[in-house]
Amino acid sequence: MEYFRFLKQMFRYAGFIALALILFYGYGCRDRIPEQKPPQVERTALNAAIIADTVIYDVIVKNPDASDLWTEETLRNLNRRGFVDLIFNAVYREELVAFDYFTGQAMTVRDIADLENDAEFSRENIGMLQFSEEWYFDEENLRMKKRVNSVSLGYEVYDTDGRIRGYKPAFLINLN
User: Fold this and answer.
1) What is the CA angle 78-83-84, rounded to 5?
2) What is the pLDDT of residues 75-112, one digit of tens each?
3) Of 18, 54, 61, 101, whose CB is crowded by the most CB atoms within 10 A?
4) For the chain, what are the domain ranges?
């Protein structure tokens, strides 16, 4: 008799339990896609999203540690010397203007020649470039685009033991 009373109660609540399980499964176990909001970004005249109007970052272009195989690998296709020579040659031909990194004052060809005659400086020791860029995202073609506004050339500075202490800016070149 007890058993039948238990079954009767089970059937009375079975509908509620089944409904609760269906609701739980139907609403709680499905993947939810968040609401898609339009991005709050500025746009260029060509409708590309402006991701950053100014990004400044350093790039090591000469491996200071020959045992650092990762840096060697990342620089394997870089023609550092060719790039440095292109910049210097354009400055000497007065096609590009070099600026003092700290003061922003234009440097003369004589200033660049004096830099190259300084015992602390060597084109071979240019080991860091600092870029100032604008970043854009073309949503239509799903492409990232960058515009380099300036580049600074930094050369290695050594301590008394011959270890690299850091980098000193040679000059800055505005490209746009």
Assistant:
1) 120
2) 999 999 999 999 999 999 999 999 999 999 999 999 99
3) 61
4) 1-32, 49-174
